[in-house]
User: Which sequence fits this backbone?
């Protein structure tokens, strides 16, 4: 059979040049690479946002643990703690304030007992934890805990 002859197979006419054509064209390969590159770029952007979100969540969770620890430490005290305390842990700075309150209608507190030195006094407690995204950076984020506790006067 010559190169110019055609082969009849079923109802299709196939030429010898059609039989040798196999694989993909350069254009098909370039289109496939472009689609793949766009998909990978989108996935990398989504992954970056996810990692940033996880980091922010971990920072917030650590700040909450610090605030809970400091609030619980104050609640364990029998006598009214100092009015202000501060501290630092790496990127986190915390401060606590305790102020005597005059809650007249607080359950379990008799206002007639305030003259007694051993009487329990209602106090407002606040714990604020601030942190930055980088070591030594500006404290941009914060967690604030507030509560009321009864303390004896010193």
Assistant:
């Amino acid at each position: 059979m010559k190169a110019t002859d055609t082969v009849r197979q079923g109802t299709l006419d196939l030429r010898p040049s059609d039989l040798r054509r196999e694989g993909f064209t350069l254009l098909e390969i370039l289109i496939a690479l472009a689609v793949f590159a766009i998909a990978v770029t989108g996935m990398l952007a989504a992954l970056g946002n996810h990692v940033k979100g996880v980091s922010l969540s971990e920072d917030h969770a650590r700040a909450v643990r610090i605030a809970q620890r400091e609030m619980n430490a104050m609640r364990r005290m029998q006598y009214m703690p100092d009015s202000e305390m501060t501290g630092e842990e790496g990127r986190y700075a915390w401060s606590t304030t305790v102020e005597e309150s005059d809650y007249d209608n607080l359950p379990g507190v008799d206002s007639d007992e305030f003259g007694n030195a051993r009487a329990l006094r209602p106090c407002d407690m606040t714990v604020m934890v601030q942190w930055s995204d980088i070591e030594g950076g500006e404290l941009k984020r914060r967690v604030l805990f507030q509560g009321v506790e009864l303390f004896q006067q010193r």
Notes: The chain is about 35% helix and 30% strand. Strands lie at 7-9, 12-14, 84-89, 92-100, 120-131, 141-152. The first helix runs from residue 16 to 19. The chain has one domain: 7-152.
